[in-house]
């Protein structure tokens, strides 16, 4: 009996050795003999809330306050276990898919991996580095947006420059739509990592949610000493899997054999007989890492995988954690025909340098028409100068949340005279630079100046837009603090092609001046209008929109006190394309009215947030 058991163990271990090392096999045997997984004593678990918010991609709030800002995610919970819309929580800028349907939205990039869902992120620093055992996120409104949690090896509070920065995924999943908007404590099962961390990154995708997700606090649990676990856990072995025949390793090239059974030299089989264009089409469905791996398989596929026509579009955002100067150097020779490049989120903490970026841009810049660089904190004035010199045909530039760029750097953008889309959300651009840009970039169609708090006088900017950029289709002035009715009137009189206008949280605009009615009469093509948190919007404004803007699709009048159900009903009847209407915190519109209007107009998503 003992002999039979010994032979059984021997067969198991030999079978395992084909895919594992000798050390793993020995560990497997010990695991089988002991019948359990060995775990050594672990030190006491530490629980800590986030000490500081280090970086984020967007937020609903202002740069000069705490309401709805990402900074609310530091420290203990402010709201939990309550549910609802609270200003003390962290809220990202968008939700749902409506914003992707707007004319101002960029085209999606090809070859984006199917498993990459992230749209926004936030990075949090904690007091003490620990080996994570759990991460808990307090979601207080419309949960389900978190799709990935990562840990970093770098201590953000050390004075030493970052070296050999590593990111490990603790947990990842698909975006979900939770059936209820009620608060919850989200604590997914996380992976154990081999280094201590006090820097976490949450990535979110709110596309399935019916309203803004709100986060209240994050807990990191962990131990200071590395837990010592057995290296391998013995899998269940099926008795039919114990074949030890060498026939398993026999040649699998049967389809290319001749009738006499002898092997013939067939090169690449029939693959190289396919038309070049067809092979290129097949390879166009591969992700970038797969394309690079395939290039190492044979000369034929190397030629196809390195063809610049495979790299007319390149999104490196999904690989932000691994991208370096060496990565760009490796891709450089393949990108001579590159037209659209997405470097968003890349290069932070020393991963990309001016030298590596400059070399790459000199190779691919001449043909580039679109450059996405949101949250690229390695950018400096010299980098923007390189872009202005190497990309003469650039039409789209996104510098969203590049909030560490110095104000003087933005003057180089004025040299990109063919720009049609420019996103400067949450940057430090100042008035002199934006006026210079508008002077020379007269082909602008889409401009985002949301949360650009350093612009001193938006009336002057509006006047310049009306004079120089008459073909403007979309304009985002979210949270600009000093636009008056005079500037708005001049703007809509000069830019009559506007289809999207975001005036959310612009407190200096007053309905009593007639500016909103003049806006409606001047912009018959209007499809999106945000008047968020403007308390003065009234029935006459809504009725003028109903009469003059039949193409309206998105309207946000959150917080108004003077709009009645009757005017909203008239608007819904007159604007058949309307799909989104936000009436949250409108004092005359209660849930009963919302339910009644939703029943009459089922194709319109009427939003009404609550607190509990």
UniProtKB/TrEMBL annotation:
Gene3D superfamilies, per the entry: Ribonuclease Inhibitor
Superkingdom of this protein's organism: Eukaryota
Classification via Pfam families: DUF7885, F-box-like
CDD domains per record: F-box_FBXL4
One term under GO cellular component: SCF ubiquitin ligase complex
InterPro entries recorded: F-box-like_dom_sf, F-box_dom, FBXL15_LRR, Leu-rich_rpt_Cys-con_subtyp, LRR_dom_sf
Domain F-box: 268-323
Listed GO biological process terms: SCF-dependent proteasomal ubiquitin-dependent protein catabolic process
Cleaved signal peptide residues: none
Keywords associated with the record: Leucine-rich repeat, Ubl conjugation pathway
Official protein name in the record: F-box and leucine-rich repeat protein 4
Organism: Haplochromis burtoni
């Amino acid at each position: 009996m003992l002999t039979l058991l010994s032979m059984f163990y021997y067969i198991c271990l030999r079978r395992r050795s084909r895919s594992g090392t000798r050390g793993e096999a020995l560990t497997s045997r010990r695991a089988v003999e002991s019948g359990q997984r060995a775990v050594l004593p672990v030190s006491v678990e530490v629980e800590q809330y986030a000490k500081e918010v280090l970086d984020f991609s967007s937020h609903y709030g202002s740069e000069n306050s705490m309401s709805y800002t990402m900074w609310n995610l530091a420290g203990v919970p402010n709201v939990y276990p309550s549910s609802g819309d609270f200003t003390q929580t962290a809220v990202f800028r968008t939700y749902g898919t409506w914003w992707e349907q707007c004319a101002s939205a960029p085209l999606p990039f090809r070859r984006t991996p199917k498993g990459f869902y992230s749209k926004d992120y936030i990075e949090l620093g904690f007091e003490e580095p620990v080996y994570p055992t759990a991460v808990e996120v307090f979601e207080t409104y419309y949960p389900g947006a978190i799709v990935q949690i990562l840990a970093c090896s770098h201590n953000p509070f050390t004075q030493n420059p970052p070296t050999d920065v590593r990111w490990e995924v603790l947990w990842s999943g698909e975006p979900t739509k939770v059936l209820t908007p009620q608060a919850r404590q989200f604590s997914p099962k996380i992976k154990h990592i081999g280094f201590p961390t006090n820097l976490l990154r949450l990535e979110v995708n709110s596309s399935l949610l019916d309203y803004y997700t709100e986060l209240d606090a994050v807990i990191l649990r962990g131990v200071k000493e590395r837990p010592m676990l057995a290296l391998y856990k013995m899998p269940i072995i099926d008795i039919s899997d114990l074949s030890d025949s060498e026939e398993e390793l026999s040649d699998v090239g049967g389809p290319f054999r001749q009738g006499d059974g002898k092997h013939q030299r067939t090169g690449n089989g029939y693959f190289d007989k396919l038309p070049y264009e067809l092979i290129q089409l097949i390879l166009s469905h591969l992700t970038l890492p797969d394309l690079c791996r395939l290039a190492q398989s044979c000369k034929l596929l190397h030629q196809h995988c390195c063809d610049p026509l495979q790299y007319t579009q390149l999104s490196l955002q999904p690989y932000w954690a691994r991208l370096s100067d060496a990565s760009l150097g490796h891709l450089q020779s393949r990108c001579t025909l590159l037209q659209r490049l997405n470097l968003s989120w890349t290069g932070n903490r020393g991963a990309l340098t001016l030298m590596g970026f400059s070399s790459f841009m000199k190779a691919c810049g001449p043909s580039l028409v679109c450059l996405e660089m949101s949250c690229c904190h390695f950018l400096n004035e010299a980098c923007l100068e390189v872009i202005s010199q190497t990309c003469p045909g650039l039409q789209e530039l996104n510098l969203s949340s590049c909030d560490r760029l110095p104000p003087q750097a933005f003057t180089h953008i004025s040299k990109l005279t063919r720009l049609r889309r420019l996103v400067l959300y949450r940057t430090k651009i100042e008035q002199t630079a934006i006026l210079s840009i508008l002077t020379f970039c007269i082909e602008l169609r889409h401009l985002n100046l949301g949360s650009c708090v350093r612009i001193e006088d938006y009336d002057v900017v509006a006047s310049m837009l009306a004079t120089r950029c008459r073909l403007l289709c979309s304009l985002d002035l979210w949270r600009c603090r000093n636009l008056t009715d005079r500037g708005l009137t001049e703007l809509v009189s000069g830019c009559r092609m506007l289809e999207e206008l975001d005036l959310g949280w612009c407190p200096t605009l007053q309905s009593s001046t007639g500016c909103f009615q003049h806006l409606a009469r001047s912009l018959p093509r209007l499809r999106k209008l945000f008047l968020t948190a403007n308390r003065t919007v009234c029935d006459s404004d809504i009725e003028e929109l109903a009469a003059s803007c039949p193409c309206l699709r998105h309207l946000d009048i959150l917080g108004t006190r003077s709009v009645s159900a009757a005017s909203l009903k008239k608007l819904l009847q007159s604007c058949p394309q309307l799909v989104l209407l936000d009436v949250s915190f409108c004092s005359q519109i209660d849930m009963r009215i919302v339910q009644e209007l939703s029943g009459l107009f089922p194709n319109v998503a009427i939003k009404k947030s609550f607190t509990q």
